[in-house]
Amino acid sequence: MNEKRNxxxxxxxxxxxxxxLGGRGNRRGVLVILSGARPGRTVVITExxxxxxxxxxxxxxxxxxxxxxxxxxxxFSVAGRYAVEDLKSTxxxxxxxxxxxxxxxxxxxxxxxxxxxxxxxxxxxxxxxxEEQKRLYEATVKDKxxxxxxxxxxxxxLASELSYAKRHGTALSVLFVDAxxxxxxxxxxxxxxxxxxxxxxxxxxxxxxxSEDIAARYGGEEFIxxxxxISGASxxxxxxxLRADVQSLSVTHDGQSIPFTVxxxxxxxxxxxxxxxxxxxxxxxxxxxxKAKETGRNRVVVG
Length: 303
Description:
Elements: E1 28-35, E2 42-44, E3 51-54, E4 61-62, E5 73-78, E6 81-86, E7 93-95, E8 98-99, E9 104-105, E10 111-114, E11 118-125, H1 127-141, H2 151-168, E12 172-179, H3 182-208, E13 214-219, E14 222-228, H4 232-247, E15 252-253, E16 256-257, E17 262-269, H5 278-294, E18 300-302
Parallel strand pairs: 3-4, 17-18
Antiparallel strand pairs: 1-2, 1-11, 3-5, 5-6, 6-9, 7-8, 7-10, 10-11, 12-14, 12-17, 13-14, 15-16
């Protein structure tokens, strides 16, 4: 009979035992991303559950870093303390410069390197600090007016998503969405009316997207949607549904109803139709959007 492994039996005390759960008030263990994917983000380690970091989308926190293993490392709580264990990764896990050879307790402030490019810091924070860190991070990656992601975040994530799609042979679709006759909206209802339209667009996109999708403001009245694992008729259905939902939106400003529509250009990367980089994928979607505008607006064109 196989005995269940006891992590305490091989636990290293290579790191000072300062990160104790007991007697810490309401402080929780967190990982702050210092470099790699989404630097500045703070993620919480849930007590009593394994927190897995790796390349696979099934990880608790998935990182698009080719030097990481699919399941690279796990963080967990044991005997009232937080700990870390490398999951037999190829390029190793290093805590404060020392490669892990087995499970090890963590001290607040410990610097953890995964593979070659991903660096995290372990810390203990109370809920108010965690929320403040989240707000600060959101301010750097979100568009202030609409609430969707900003152009800088989009540029980084789209490149990362395309790299992931190429590596795993999966589809990646981009929807280039542009509000029709937006200058006329501004001229008729003022810039505050135009802002009301953009805000409504942002809310609709956020509400309609899956958790793995990305909605970003590309600039002005242009938005980009990045959809993982969707192609062909499915992405066309998503785009058509979005177009119809926008057309039926009820936007009111200063007691006036503001009708508006969008045109959408679609481009999809697949193993049969690969794109060299994210700029090439966006260019095809942009060209499809131009054709949608040319042929009457309020429509979807696939590039």
